[in-house]
UniProtKB/TrEMBL annotation, chains A, B:
It comes from Desulforhopalus singaporensis. SMART domains: AFOR_N (SM00790). The keyword rRNA-binding does not apply. One of its GO terms (molecular function) is oxidoreductase activity, acting on the aldehyde or oxo group of donors, iron-sulfur protein as acceptor. Belongs to the AOR/FOR family. Its cofactor is [4Fe-4S] cluster; tungstopterin. Residues 1-207 form the Aldehyde ferredoxin oxidoreductase N-terminal domain. This is Aldehyde:ferredoxin oxidoreductase.
Length: 576, 576
């Protein structure tokens, strides 16, 4: 396995042996430990001293299904702290099968220049100057790159938002069909890539270098069983293929936890028009695709292809978080507008969550009306054209809130919460507040442990047990993000012997027994490293807080406020 | 003495006895200790739980000359920490002679409503609803209020920038001639007043309540001597009356410390057109006024009245900091444009320093050309009309820098540095970085101790001695800001026995001996309180740093960078 180290200042590309301390790492553990090792915490995230690292998961490129997560790590210009954002598609698999366990981007190209990095095989990679690509949207860009470099490539790239270094800029990656519709959306890492002057990384998909696995038989046996368990599970085997992540719309809304109109309400009156069932029906009627494969080695196929009434491609994949942020959050029940907004965010290179919430804050401050999907579309288009308002939207909810001196801004560390109101699912308030990542839902998704409909056993409106649940989940997720396993394939862990199976694969790959305790230690080490970076960057306990709106405003229909005390929040990781 | 406590939520006005712990305080000691006592450090600065306190200096209303400083304290929406900003004019004297040692504004009026507080005498004060005043500029506003409430009033008020809660919004106060041209400019406290729904405070000037002085004879004798010393001093007795603060332009530029074109240069080629001598000559030729009295009880008369070539009033007083921020900092050598910008900032209610630097950052990011004074005027006009770009300018350099992802933003804690480049006067780097106030120059002006032309003895380009000098000056200034003495009247301290004279006045007023050590303890206590508030608000050592540009870019013509280490910065107040 190799590190590919790319210096944008010198325009050099170096193949490096992997230093011993990184050899048993992958994904988020690798990106976070590396960033903490090599980046000064107080550095300007958009300056030459920040670094951007792309790392496939520890299991990427093995025979284990659904391990195509690519972790992207850096100091975030949005949160001011460390960030790992991961994305599916095909890039992680392509890199891993070329024997590349990390690409490191350092330095900074001249302000006006623009490069692509072309990784042709396991020994040749080079920077190519391509100033004319600057400002290009991702769909046009990837078509152009596929024309120039071949269709048998995986591409990760930025759109105009990243070129303009906007704080909600995503890094998009091509999916199984070669479309740039998969996003490492959170933390504004697209702005870091833009600041470096790197527009795209093109990775040959023909790598055949086998993953390093000490006990291959043991690994194969365990991974086979794991695949079977994921396939057998009702949620990952039947529901997700049918409805995709949009299946969450109805139960979360029923729980009064669907943040509506900038989180003034917990239920959206237009929910029936944007539910998983409604969307699947529309897609099927129009001849689009449900049960669509988005990522390498995926056996779940939770993706979809949304089309117009004439059957023309609109976007893929329309996901729960976007249906919320561009739907209920801005009061919009027009599914075609939501799908268009999803496409635009992918095309311009924007996090749909932060962007939808930015629009919601603008509407809440009186700049537009809740429910005006057409206005939302115009605003997102303005992000690309670079008007002042578009730039504010592209810089996220905090920028919009400051601009209008509007204090109802549902962010933590500058990053928007996701589609679970922390008042109606109190466990999410602990995750949003305390994760080193800003208000990420994937950092510790405890909805299942809170809501009875998901098998939850704690009171979602109470504080009891929430800190422990969030802490344990966050630690577990840090390890999951390290091995590169898709979140939805965690159903394999719930099967009988599922977790042992995962430990079996860890042991087989490493060539030494790996225990459940070591799994916890791995996750703990990742979070401890991230907390250390954030402290050095100047973040404090006061940054581990939800904004006052969640404490002061009762959320209908259950009229709840966040009940977790500051002391409870601070206890979450007080030992790390 | 009384506290006047005004609750904007309930629309109540309460006269209160002064609690014992505040009785021997005034000015900045009173505002900072009060804010730390009564405001939760993590509160939203623009929310109902923040408070805004106006306090005359401890010596205001006594026979001591030049004690007309009014301290305004609050949690700052600009810095996120505690703020004291003080202003001259006539309000402090009017309040003190009505026996009012503090006005406290708490709560928050409804978003659309707007009030004025009318203080008729020492027993009657009331809130008057005046929604039609919202958005009015300060010159029109004060003319209207003087018409309605009489010309024998002192007024402190906000302009449209404060109404819109912009982060560079100032609180303007009327000068000796009744013009709203004196600004508590820094920290965005105008936005706090706007958020409360308070447009203006009108104070009757006819108060005759004598100051509480235990040993009046001793006080009179000392204050008489002090006045004589200030009058005899060459700087306060001759130079300031002739040239005003603009006298600084040439020596600071000669030292290569005049931040030019967003601090890319230390000398401005157009300096001869905007020097103190040049301005005095223009004013005299046009029939304006130099040697103009701006504040109650002033014997220095450093103010001026700048007029057009036809003799029409443009602005008062054109000061060094504005000549820099609207001149060299934006590359503009047109003194008429500078004067117009000064007027516009007063009229719209904006800090000239933060606003000029915001424009400089915009120009540096490519939005306009350095030297385009007309564009600067249009941009400041846009602050009032509320365009997106105007709002960004009104929210200050950080908002503009974030908007354009431009990292050359010369601020600390979100607030612009002033007219002394910290590379060419290294002592200012300690003050800018470590003062709890954000990059305020008045918090610890150590130019005199750095530059040989001012009698300085340390190397202005070296780090040696700078921490100690800044620390001592900051502590001393915290005490000066407490008694309400004008900065320029500090020349009385340099006279033989001058400092003893000041201690004599402290002792006489308090009725017990007050030593030099107690003076230092007073200043130390103030800063300690402010640091405590900031820590509780979540500010850390990383907030006590200048931006990278001052460390990475050599400043011509002496090609210096900031040499004070992080450890030295952190040692400044490490014992507090």
């Amino acid at each position: 396995m190799k590190f590919l180290r790319v210096n944008m200042t010198d325009e050099t590309v170096l193949w490096q042996d992997v230093a011993p301390q990184y050899k048993t790492l992958g994904g988020r553990a690798l990106t976070s430990i590396f960033i903490n090792d090599e980046v000064l915490a107080t550095t300007d995230p958009l300056g030459p001293d920040n670094k951007l690292i792309f790392a496939p998961g520890f299991f990427s490129g093995t025979s284990l299904i659904n391990t195509s997560r690519l972790s992207v790590g850096s100091k975030s210009p949005l949160t001011g702290g460390i960030k790992e954002s991961n994305v599916g598609g095909t890039v992680a698999f392509s890199l891993a099968t070329l024997g590349i366990c990390a690409i490191i981007i350092e330095g900074q190209a001249d302000a006006d220049s623009c490069f692509v990095l072309n990784i042709q095989d396991d020994t040749s990679a080079n920077l190519i100057r391509a100033d004319d690509l600057k400002g290009m949207r991702t769909y046009d860009l990837t078509r152009r790159l596929q024309h120039d470099f071949g269709t048998d490539t995986s591409i990760t790239c930025i759109g105009p938002a990243g070129d303009s270094k906007l704080l909600s800029a995503s890094i998009q990656s091509t999916d199984f069909d070669g479309r740039p519709c998969r996003a490492a959306g959170r933390g504004g890492l697209g702005a870091v890539m833009g600041a470096k002057g790197l527009k795209a990384i093109i990775v040959n998909r023909k790598g055949r270098i086998p993953a390093e696995i000490v006990d291959l038989d043991r690994f194969k046996k365990a991974s086979k069983q794991y695949a079977k368990d994921v396939k057998t599970d009702e949620f990952s085997g039947e529901i997700l293929p049918q409805l995709g992540t949009a299946v969450l719309v109805e139960p979360i809304n029923a729980a009064g936890a669907f943040p509506t109109r900038n989180a003034t309400l917990g239920q959206f009156e237009g929910v029936e028009k944007i539910s998983g069932e409604a969307i699947a029906k529309i897609i099927e009627e129009r001849g689009g695709q449900t049960r669509h494969k988005g990522c390498s080695q995926c056996i779940i196929d939770c993706s979809n292809e949304f089309v117009t009434s004439k059957g023309e491609y609109v976007t893929s994949s329309l996901e729960y978080e976007t249906i919320w942020s561009m739907g209920g959050m801005i009061g919009n029940d027009d599914i075609d507008a939501i799908a268009r907004l999803d496409f635009l965010c992918d095309d311009i290179g924007l996090d749909t969550i932060n962007t939808g919430t930015a629009i919601a804050v603008a509407f809440d401050a009186g700049y537009g009306e809740f429910g005006d999907g057409e206005k939302a579309i115009r605003l997102v288009e303005e992000v690309a054209t670079g008007t002042e308002m578009g730039t504010l939207i592209g810089n996220g909810p905090d920028a919009v809130g400051r601009h209008f001196s509007h204090s109802r801004v549902p962010t933590v560390k500058g990053q928007s919460i996701a589609a679970y109101d922390p008042r109606a699912i109190q466990g999410m308030s602990v995750t949003y507040s305390t994760t080193p990542m800003g208000a990420d839902h994937t950092a510790g998704w405890v909805v299942d442990q809170n809501l009875e409909a998901f098998g939850g056993t704690v009171d979602p409106h109470g504080s009891e047990g929430q800190v422990e649940i969030s802490r344990n989940t966050q630690i577990h997720m840090a390890a999951i993000d390290t091995v590169g396993l898709c979140d939805f394939a965690q159903t394999g862990l719930a099967a009988e012997g599922g977790f042992d199976n995962l430990m079996n694969m860890m042991s087989a790959k490493l060539g030494q027994e790996f225990s459940a305790q070591q799994w916890t230690e791995l996750g703990t080490r990742v979070i401890k490293t991230e907390l250390e970076f954030n402290r050095n960057a100047g973040l404090t306990r006061q940054d581990d807080r939800l904004p006052p709106m969640f404490y002061n405003e009762q959320l209908p229909p259950y009229n709840v406020v966040v009940k977790i005390s500051d002391e409870e929040l601070d206890s979450t990781f007080s030992d790390l």
